[in-house]
Structure formats: C-alpha cells, structure tokens
Amino acid sequence: MSKCGQFLSGLLHDCKSNIERMTERIPESNYDQLHHFISESPWDCFAVMDLVSEKVYDTLSTKNTSISSEMISIGLVLDESGWEKAGNKSVGVARQYIGQVGKIANGQVGVFASLCDGQQVGLLQGRLYLPKGWVNDKDRCHKAGIPLTEQIYRTKPELAIEILKTLPSTINYDWVGGDCIYGNSLLLRQYLYDNNQPFVVDVGEELGVYLTKPQLYVPAKKQGKGATPTNYVCDEKPIQLKNLIKQIPDEQWEEIAHRKGTKGYLLRKSVILDIHIWKPERKDNIESVQLIISTEVDGSEVKYSLCYSPEGKMPLKTALYRQMQRYWIERAFQNVKEQLGLHQYQVRSWKAWHHHIALSLMALHFILQIQRDSKEDIPLISVADIKLIFAKKLQNNLNSDEGLIKAIMVRHIKRKQDIDRHFKVPK
C-alpha cells in the first residue's frame, strides 16, 4: 500500500489521527516514512485539494429528482474552524478566538470552503490563517517552513477570496454564503459583485443601513478661511439592524419551512427588505442590496444576512434557504473532527498542516461518496456508521498478540525518551 493509502487508512481507522497511532495499526507502515510523507515529501497539497474539489462537485451535482429544484441548487459556503494547540511552535498557533471552545485560547485557525446541496456537504479547500505575530517574525516563519510567498498577513476574508480565485474552473455553484466574518467584509462583497456572483452572507446587528437611498452631497465651503470640502455627507442617519428589526410590523413576517429535520420541517419567521449601505470613507459608493432577517418562530436566534443576485430581486424563500445552509458546513466540521480527527495530528510545519488537511478532505469526500451511493439502500447511513465499518474491517496489527506487544514496547520506548528529554537523569 502507498504512503497515501496508509495515511488515509489511518484516518479511517479506530484510532487518533496521528502518525504514532496509525503506524501501530496499519500493516507495513513505518513511523519515520509516514512522518516524512506528511511533513517533508514535496507533493502538492493544493493540487490534491483541487482534485477533491472536483470530486465533491461531481458527487453533489448528480441530480436528485426526489427534491425540488430549489433544493438542488449548490452553494459554496465559507467558514473558519479552529482547535486548541499547546505550545508556540506549531505553525500559526497563537492566542486567538477558537470557535470549538467558544473563547480566546491558544490554537490554530483555518479558513475553509464547502459545497452543499441542501442534503449533503463536502469540504473543498483549507487555508491556514497566520496571525500578524507570525508574519512579523521571519525567523519563526523560516523554522516552520512557511514559503516566502505566504509570509504576508491575510485576513480571513482575503484567504476566502484566494480560495474563490483558485478553485478549478470546472466547479460551478449558484451562490456564496458565509458568517459575519465574511459578510461584514466589503472587500469580499465587492469581489462577489465584480464577478456577478449571487450571495447570502451574514452580517452583525451593529451594521447601519438606510431604507431609502441616501442623498449624498459635498457641503459648500463656509465663508472665511479653511479648506474646500471634498468629502460626501448625508443628512440622514443610518439605522442599526438591531433597531431596524423593532420597526418591522408583525404582518410583514412570514413563517417558512427551510429544511426537513428528524421531526418534520423546520420553520423560521422571515422578512426581506431592500436596503442601502453607505459610510463616509466610501465617497459616493452606495451599496444597494437586500436584507433578510429571520428568527425562530418564538422570536429567538435572530440572523441578519445581505442578499444579492445580479438577475434581480431574490425571493424570500430562496434567501431563507440559502441563509440557513451554514448548518451543513458546521456538520462537515463536526464529522471531520469527531470521526476523522482533523485536529489530532502531531506535526508543526506549514507543509505538514496543509498535507494533513488535504488528505482529511479527501477522506471526508470518500465517505460522502459512500453515503451518496448508499442513498437508496441505506438512506440513514451516517459518517459514524461508515467509520465504524472501516474500524472493524480494515486490517489491524493490534489484532495479533505480536502486533499488540510490539505496539506496547514502542510506546514504552517513546515514553522513556520523553522522560529523558524533559528531566536530566543523574549519572
């Protein structure tokens, strides 16, 4: 079996997704060789991600006639995912917000893109987020093997744009979605406008908007000394979204089903409005889009999203469906972490991080394809079900007494080496 096959088998096996545990189980595997494959081998991680992207698209673009045309639309959803990491040597590790633990912690964060079709999801691409403290420390970057071209600071929306720009041209999607980190970015929204790309992206409740197009003008110069004004102003004040929602009459809200859950269709109260966004630093550039606001039926869990379609107004039902599709990328993160151990690697370099991510996305697509192929015969088969099957069916060195004893002895040698390294043993 190739080193790639061994690593993928390790991801699907009944063990943590690090090389030590993999080589205990996978026949003919070797720790040093597998570590070299993931950390030093020159294979192109981004070419692998492109291949995975094409495979995911092929899988999800197969038409499913059992659902409505609305539910066949494919969306590309952007999101970030992070996990805690100890120490300060792993590439990109820093004190930053980690969504998995819901607070600022020491960890790594990546920006990811997914494709979803309303029923299933596949992850396409991943880019490591490098905090400013990293890119400003060239020696640290060199030790982590970060290429010179990558030693520049990019925000998460900028990484998302890089993903969109470099996706294979064969991949088509109907709209782009993302949480507030991406929706609040004018840079990302402008990129989507420039490419006539429909989107439904979340924004924060603090965003100020106008219900009518603001009338901009440059004030006349006052008498006396002083520079001639050149900046545009507006007499009307914007309304923050958290205040706008209070002004919407009850009769404008509609209850709409957006997804079928285990206990029936899920409903949300929704409303869509035409709005305009302008800030003084934008000069005379006024952004005219739609805004969808939705809540649970009881009024809880408010979500605000900007909606754009170059073809005209987006129907409320379509906008709500797209707004709620972030559920799928969150499911993908849950599966790839809990079942494939996305965050359980024991490598530190830039190359190793991206190699591990690329193969994790490949393994996740492999499972997605099994689910798609089994849809008719086993409609409820889950990622956990498939992982259980592989855990029991893949060859495992630990099933023999010899393999079990060898694994324990290797663990003991490693434990002694760790003790000797951390404590000076008296002569």
What would you say this structure looks like, in words?
By secondary structure, the protein is an alpha+beta fold. The chain has a single domain, classed as Transposase Inhibitor Protein From Tn5, Chain A, domain 1. It is 38% helix and 21% strand. The chain has helices spanning 3-12, 19-25, 31-39, 45-60, 69-72, 132-135, 138-143, 156-166, 180-183, 186-194, 241-244, 316-323, 326-338, 350-373, 383-393, 401-422; strands at 75-84, 94-98, 103-116, 121-128, 175-178, 199-203, 208-209, 216-217, 233-234, 239-240, 254-261, 264-277, 287-295, 303-308. The strands form three sheets. Strands 1, 2, 3, 4, 5, 6, 11, 12, 13 and 14 form a ten-stranded mixed β-sheet that branches. Strand 3 and strand 4 form a beta hairpin. Helix 1 packs across helix 2, helix 1 crosses helix 14 (350-373) and helix 4 (45-60) packs parallel to helix 14 (350-373).
Summarize, please:
This protein is α+β, with helices and mostly antiparallel strands and 427 residues long.
